[in-house]
Amino acid sequence: AVPLNLPAFRRARISAPLLAIYRKITPNLSETEQIALEAGTVGFEGQLFSGKPDWSELLGQARPELSVDEQA
Question: Measured by CB atoms within 10 angstroms of the end CB, which terminus of the chain is less buried, N or C?
Fold first, then answer.
């Protein structure tokens, strides 16, 4: 367990080899997929998947409320 607590060891011996394997088995994005990804906008989900979300932004967003028809 101790080696896993050492970032340099973990990156060199665990993360880097796993990432290399992952890159080999995942397909490359097609040009169409790349265009689609770049054309859209992302909200908080984009930050969440980036690994460094701005939680204050999420907490600052207005909470949606149901209309009278939706509540019925």
Answer: N
